[in-house]
Design goal:
This protein is an alpha+beta fold and 230 residues long. The protein is built from 8 helices and 4 strands, in the order E-H-E-H-E-E-H-H-H-H-H-H. It has a 4-stranded mixed β-sheet. Strand 3 and strand 4 form a beta hairpin. The longest helix has 28 residues. The C terminus is likely disordered.
Length: 230
Amino acid sequence: MITLYHCANARSFRVLWMLEELGTPYRLEMLPFPPRVLQRDYLAIHPQGTVPLLVDGEIRMNESVAICQYLASLHAPTPLNVERDEAGYAQYLNWLHFGEASLTFPQALVLRYGTLEPQERRLPQAAQDYAQFFHGRLRTIEQLLETRDFACAGRFTAADISLGYALMLARVLGLHERFGPAVGAYWSRLSARAGFERAMAVQEETAARLGLPLVPTAGVGTGRRPPAHG
């Protein structure tokens, strides 16, 4: 059975959502965020100390979008996948990776330099600059969604999970107030899906059982070790 290591509202939510959409059995291991700081024994399982970590037999993967692509291919044929001979294949790959590289990456820096770092290490200007970076890239999605309900192939796919997580994170970070009307309607469609609602319920129930917060803990740092001396 697949095991997913996950933190509340972290990139690993993409994988949790994907698993629920597919109806694939899995075991969830939920950790405090960031686990490399708040659960140091996790480093023995995954030396980077990040989530997601997906373990499927001998397979270990730690990039959320790559895991979504792997799961879609593994369970093909599924509407969540776009096959190479479909007209929307290139768009599928583009938006699948756009969700991480262009939308989530700048938000990760907003989170780090606006919340996670101790007060003396925070960089408000950097957080503001990367928030602006995010909003600039979001305009591309606004234009895309003015003429369609989903990113590609005329249906909901793993690319929408990738993009949808970035919108979810924006809401966690308070960056959603500048969503355009098309992006706002898109988010409403995505968050109303039964698979999304199940993933959210599993996350909330597991967090409550383990006493874990659903929002990042401010000021805990990122696990950066001080430089060696001597």
